[in-house]
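#struct-pred
JK: can someone run the complex with 2'-monophosphoadenosine-5'-diphosphate? inputs below
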Amino acid sequence: MPGLAVIGHPVAHSRSPAMQTAALTALGLAGEWTYGAIDLAPGEFEAEVAALAAEGEYRGVNVTIPHKEAALAVADEVDPVAREIGAANTLAFADGVISAFNTDAPGLRRALRANPDGRRALVLGAGGAARAAIWALHSAGAVVEIWNRTESRAAAVVEEMDVPHARVVTDPDPGAYGLIVNTTSVGLHGEDPFAELPLDPDQLAERVVVDMVYAEGPSTLSQVAAERGAAVVDGLEILVQQGACSLAIWLGEAKLEPEVVDAMRAAAYGDTPPIA
Ligand code: ATR
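RT: done, structure tokens with the ligand placed:
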């Protein structure tokens, strides 16, 4: 039976197995394909992935924290988007060859209902999630500005990535952006986003606010932004869309039908409905 899985450390909390199994069920493939979870410590990742690819049962994996950079390193072939972002979240195995992709960027692009072309966008953060967001927004025609608590990291990201017109900002005016994307971990452990990030609740109306962080239930930022009249895209919707893009890599683009994505969304959200 062809296998798929998510690899992370820890991985027990991942919603990907439920979400991807729902997709396989919606496609009528649940008896044929499986999607599980594999917990690998950083030291085990490369050897185990090489073994999975060589053995032939697994056709691919999603890769999550902390392995997204190692996933790039273990691959024989790297998609240009993953290369540019510097991280891979999807591996496909065929005849022992490992191919790496990044679906966080196209997933974010699909999750955005608005077209970012020509908009001014503020990305908060400078880690791997920020790089995916910067790539997604830049390639869709947005003018990207990046703020990070540690400014030098933001500067390094702009320097390393091929994103003409992107620039670092130290004191952004949140009212100046049509689109604001939080890629920092603020909110994950109860931090106040309006204390830690350069955001003002009074300046969120009529903007698109994306919070890539997801925990149990909607984040404070998503909740407040929705209350203040922003169009909110939450981290779970991005998870759903990146998962759908990964599925398309393994099974073919034709499988990416709206009913399949709806089934994934229902499984990912469980009892907590989307905020907007
Ligand atoms: P990932 O690769 O998942 O994006 P990461 O590399 O650990 O994760 O980055 C986490 C991001 O959250 C960083 O931009 C970090 O800012 P620093 O570079 O200054 O560390 C940001 N972050 C974490 N806690 C924060 C806080 N309390 N306030 C502001 N930014 C914070």
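RT: quick notes.
The two ends are 38 Å apart (CA to CA).
Residues 125-130, 148-150, 153, 183-186, 191, 196 surround 2'-monophosphoadenosine-5'-diphosphate (CB under 6 Å).
JK: thanks, will look after standup
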